[in-house]
Structures are given as structure tokens and as C-alpha cells.
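Exam revision sheet. Question 4 asks you to relate a sequence to its structure. Input first:
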Amino acid sequence: MSTGCKAVCVVCSDAGNNVLGILTMTQSDVSQPVVKLAGKLSGLTPGKHGLSVCVSGDVSAGSASCGPIFNPFGTWLALAGTRRRQQQREDAVATTAVDPADLVRRRRAFCLLWLRSLTRICYHPPFRALLETPSGKTHGAPDDDNQCMVGDLGNVVADENGAAEVKMELGGKEGKAGVQLLGPHSVVGRSIVLYAGEDDQGRGGQENSLATGNPGPRIAAGVIGLSVSSS
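Answer key, C-alpha cells:
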């Protein structure tokens, strides 16, 4: 009996253009981390376009509702940064004359707000997997070492006719957690998002390089869904 998995993503425009495509993802077994991504896209402007797996499979508002790039190993880093900034604010307050009772009320209000936000995240299905490990990842290329985000797929290249052939092997590199269809960090039910410009893969030195790759606006997206076909 086969333990493999196949998924399909129909990528559709949400930006008033003619972008369209079908991408397939296959994984032979949960013990085999390589996922093959293949397909064709059309209606693009010639050149490179960023591609990523995003957290949510919600396309009710197009690609805008797909959430950030899938990064299951980066959440605790963000939470630690939030707490560190709060501590810096508290230290600044402590250096000035302030009513102790007021300071206690502020701290209590912050703790309640932080706990409420964390609880909402924990019980929101797309984010449950994001709270499992403490290591932080930043944006990079899919063939980078283990420091890049799982959802980083790099770029596709459109020819002069606006067509792009997609053929990638994701994961499989020793020590690297890549895109998976099987296991606790499965991307099934999430989304693939296409961007207007080139993804700098974390090397551009721009403000958003280590977060998104600075690829410009999102122009198309599709939900990654299970396929009943094994071919």
C-alpha cells in the first residue's frame, strides 16, 4: 500500500491580470523528505517572480488573506522580541517618577493582553504548528542551509511570452526542514503565493529582505489541496 501523497494547487490571479497555472506537489513517503514541485504558469510579465508557501489556505480576499510565509520554526523568536521590547519600555518607565500603583496596572493590562493574544494564536489551527519549536528562521533561498523559512520557494522565470515552467525538488538537504506534504508540518491546506517581482532571497539588504525577500505585491494565489490521483 502506497504511503505517498500528491497535492495540487490551482494558481489564479487576484490582481486584475491573466495569471493562471496548475502546480503539483508529490512526496513518496513521510520518511523521504524530498517534495517535487512541478507545473506551468502563464500570464506573467517576462522575468523573475517570487514564489512562496504561505500560512493560510484562505483565499476569500485573494492572496492578501493567505497570511505570511510559512515559517513553523520562527514564532518563538518573534514572541521573544515582543517581550524584549516590552521590557525595554518598562525599564524606561522605571527611570522616571511614576505612581507604583499605575505601573502595576499597566503591567497587569499588558500581561492580560499578551496572554489573550497568545491563546488565540494557539487555538487557531493554521498557527498551531508555529508554536512547536524555539529556533528562529529568516527569509532565504530554498537551497540555503537550515536558516531559511520552510515556505521560501525562490523564483520562477517567465519567458518573453509570460510563461514559466516550474520544476523544483524541495527539502532533502541534510539538517534542513523543507516543504512537506506529510508529517506535523504539512503544507496541505495552506497556499502558494506568486509575486510581481523578483525575490532577493534574503540577500538584497533591503528593509524586508530577511522577512519577505522584497518581491513586490502579490499577484496570484491558490490553495494546496490533496489529490486523489497518484499519477
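Marking note for examiners. The first strand starts at residue 5 and ends at 13.
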